[in-house]
Design a protein that fits this description.
With about 375 residues, this protein is α/β, with parallel strands linked by helices. The chain has two domains: about 5-170 and about 355-365, 3-Layer(aba) Sandwich (Rossmann fold), CATH 3.40.50; about 185-350, Glycogen Phosphorylase B (Rossmann fold), CATH 3.40.50.2000. The chain has helices at about 15-30, 70-80, 90-100, 120-135, 145-155, 185-190, 210-225, 240-250, 265-270, 290-295, 310, 325-335, 340-350, 355-365; strands at about 5-10, 35-40, 55-60, 85-90, 110-115, 140-145, 165, 200-205, 230-235, 255-260, 275-280, 300-305, 320. The strands form two sheets. A seven-stranded parallel β-sheet has the order 3-2-1-4-5-6-7, with helices on both faces. Helix 5 links the parallel strand 6 (about 140-145) and strand 7 (about 165). It starts with a strand and ends with a helix.
Length: about 375
């Protein structure tokens, strides 16, 4: 078992990967034998309070693109704490780890959590081509799906030997089906959603790749083509909030497309809904939110990005579709009219994507000899 871990993140917003690291560090903290350190390269750290109190937090915010102080501070921290393992939350963090360890004789092993499949633009593509060139034989990239690895290997021409695949896992004791005494109608009423209406929930950061505008178009197609008048509850925050509000108004959906903001506890959103969806067009790899929704007994419709087909059991936990709005709407209509067993969905997540299975895999690779 590894004795010390240093996490490096570009920032700590409320996001899927960041929340995953919170859970991994909490599970390691329970063992009381692992020293853990956390570095953020930003002042944007709302999630830092969610980490276990035993995790030592060090903010080293960048003030400009070429600000060297965070690298010097990180280098000093690595020398002082001597972590066995450095876990980087994406390749931008890896660049700092690489520079922080440059020239050291006893370098920690570096693991890069890589939760991206298709990049947004050419700039991101070229940056990652550069990052991949910095990997040494001692470094490992932790990928979240087979499809992601195959795409990355084919696209960037790098060896599969760099990759370890670990499926994301969720706390299936926490994410369960709706309690018998929970007021579903009362929760819906807060957002003006009738108790009998079909409700689709989309829990995703408000960023371009999540394709909220496509979801809004699909909501109209669902009504006009498939004759299902549903509501869309959007949980999350981000840079596109104002733009999405404008799209809602322009499409005349102000009463049926609701921005609910960031949810401290997302379970009530799942319990109130009939369907969970992600409409991503890029980046998405293996959604923790989708796993949480299925663990709560909610069927999912996911676009065919990253490991969606490795996560969804067709007809048992939902469906995978392509990214055009018409395809999304058709998959929604199909799923909303099919019967689903909440018990079967929860059992599927327990058996395949539970935290114990995930943590056993992490502990194994952290302890592996080079």
């Amino acid at each position: 078992m590894v004795s010390s871990v240093l996490y490096i993140s570009p920032a700590l917003p409320v996001g899927g990967l960041e929340k995953l690291i919170v859970r991994i560090s909490a599970l390691l903290a329970e063992k009381k034998t692992v020293r853990q350190y956390l570095v953020s390269l930003s002042d944007n750290n709302p999630l830092c309070t969610e980490f276990d109190a035993s995790v030592e937090f060090h903010p080293f915010p960048r003030r400009s693109k070429f600000h060297l102080a965070p690298i010097r501070a990180l280098r000093k921290l690595i020398r002082e704490k001597q972590p066995e393992v450095i876990v980087c939350l994406n390749f931008f963090s890896f660049l700092f780890a690489y520079l922080g360890c440059l020239g050291m004789k006893n370098k920690p092993r570096i693991f890069v959590f890589y939760q991206t499949t298709i990049h947004l633009n050419k700039k991101e593509f070229n940056l990652h081509k550069f990052y991949f060139s910095l990997l040494s034989k001692r470094d490992k990239v932790i990928a979240a799906s087979v499809n992601q690895v195959n795409y990355t290997v084919d696209t960037y021409g790098i060896s599969k030997d760099f990759f370890k695949i670990i499926y994301n896992g969720v706390n299936t004791d926490h994410f369960t089906s709706m309690p018998a005494n929970w007021d579903r109608d009362g929760f819906r009423a807060q957002y003006g959603i009738p108790s009998s209406a079909k409700l689709i929930v989309m829990a995703a950061a408000l960023r371009p790749e999540k394709n909220h505008t496509g979801a809004l178009e699909a909501l109209q197609i669902l009504e006009n083509t498939h004759h299902i008048k549903a509501y869309l509850l959007i949980a999350g925050g981000g840079i596109m909030e104002q733009e999405i509000r404008q799209h809602i108004q322009q499409r005349g959906l102000t009463s049926r497309a609701i921005l609910a903001g960031v949810q401290k506890d997302v379970r009530p959103v799942f319990w109130a809904a009939d369907l969970f969806t992600l409409c991503s067009t890029s980046v998405e790899t293996f959604s923790v939110a989708a796993l949480e929704a299925m663990s709560c007994g909610l069927p999912c419709v996911l676009t065919n990005i990253g490991g969606a087909k490795e996560m969804i059991q067709e007809g048992v936990t939902g469906h995978v579709c392509e990214t055009p709005a018409a395809d999304i709407a058709a998959a929604w209509a199909k799923t909303l009219t099919e019967p689903y067993s909440t018990e079967a969905m929860h059992a599927y997540i327990v058996n395949n994507f539970s935290e114990p299975k995930m943590m056993a895999a992490y502990e194994k690779i952290f302890a592996e000899k080079e």
